[in-house]
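A note from the maintainers: we've had questions about how concatenated examples are separated. There is no special marker in the raw files; a new sequence line simply starts the next protein. For clarity in this README we add a label.
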Amino acid sequence: MSNHQYYSIEIAGIKRDLRLFEIKPGLKIAILNILGDTELVQASARELAKKLEGIEHDILVTAEAKSIPLAYALSVELKKPYVILRKTYKPYMGDVVQAETLSITTGQPQVLILDEKDRDLIQHKKAIILDDVISTGSTLQGMRMILDKANSTVVAEASILTEGDRAQWSGIVSLGHLPLFTE
């Protein structure tokens, strides 16, 4: 029997119990991990597609790794391609565009990298940037920086959930909000 604490939430008609994770003393966040949760990913993609329906765009952009299944499912729903910004450089990626952000879950700097092969897909395009959960906005900031360097326009920002200061995320298209848990 575990001593873990959970936060119950309903997302796109699907109920989930999210485990609370301490990111620093006295502060916990609810962890949404959509990897392998096909039911939740598909339902979330359908609902986000409805909310994004009227926004003219050419491409979806997300950062690896947890939001990749969402990008794929939303790409199918919206019939638009998607690009994944990587976190590790591989030599085959060629002449990349990159930006550095700070991860809330690790507390460490992380790099986002646009593969050279994806530059043409993004350049001079209207993009929706996508994440599973938006907490501090640092990943969004990194994605915006890369899209700016690639001469692309961000037309919307979307996520399954936002977290923390709700007013800060009023411009985000999302399906729900998570509080921060303090002791």
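[label: protein 2]
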Amino acid sequence: MSLRPPSSTLPSAAAPAEPGRRQALRGAGALGAALALPALSLPAGALAQPAAALDTVRVVTGFPPGGTSDTLCRRVADRLRGSYARNAVVENRTGAGGQVAIDLMRAAPRDGSVILQTPASMLMIYPHIYRKLAYNPFEDISPVSLGCRFEFGFAVGPMVPASVRSIADFLAWCKANPAQANYGSPAAGSVPHFIGALLERASGVDLKHVAFRGTQPAILDMIGGQIAAVSGPVGEFTQHVAAGKCRVLATSAAQRSRFAPDVPTFSEQGFKDLVFREWFGFFLPGKPAPDITARANAALRAALAAPEVVDGLAIMGLEAASSTPDELRAQLKADHDRWGPIVKTIGFSADS
């Protein structure tokens, strides 16, 4: 955007004075060009750097390389490099179902050089299932921006016969084969875990849950024949479905996923209460200064709007989305309050 001075601010001299005005304007142009010359001699990319540009920004995720969380971090980090900081690196701090990465933020610098990206599960559900959670999601980290939204899929691998094409088929098979009636998820106490738990509760069929450090390790065990099924972000299954190694039986949103349009939802298959979407968000440690939050928010929103980021996330079944810090804070509070009664209904405790 450019601003042009109102015409009334320009001199309204009579015709004989016109040459003098042209000369003054030429002089102003020459002065502007002269002032611009030193900037042209700066190193390439220097013009994009603010005066106090960070040397390195670390984008931290609690999940391993190759999955949706890692993909979002790497796509965004590529856009932060050079604009927000001279360098950007992704750190995969796995462990404790994503808790290790969040706990790390309690001791991280408050200067914007460390940004956490985490699924909502660790913030909206974990406070309800751990009596002594290592972090407080409303105090130890500060919302910056939403990152993306997505739905979940429930898939089966080669352990399950090819004749199983729906959730009803899967439940019937599990009932007939109780020793193999299991499913994996990216973490105990995550939304994918509870989708399986709610499915078990609604159907009356026993399903054993197996927790992994991320969805991809669970999928690898599923396509290797070690477990029967996996509940996880729908985009995590895309490459494996394309290769014919697994099939998705249901998705979890109110409408069919645009990333799996031929797969019916849980609701379509009779499980009306299994309607869930989730989000990934970006956070800073503690309570950073407002200008630091504002700068990080502006950089993240610009990154998430870049076509290559939007398209890259779509490959993984993620819908790029951004927000203000206050919008993300309100979303977290609403989802935290929604999941309290659900967790109570399921009766799960991570401490037991």
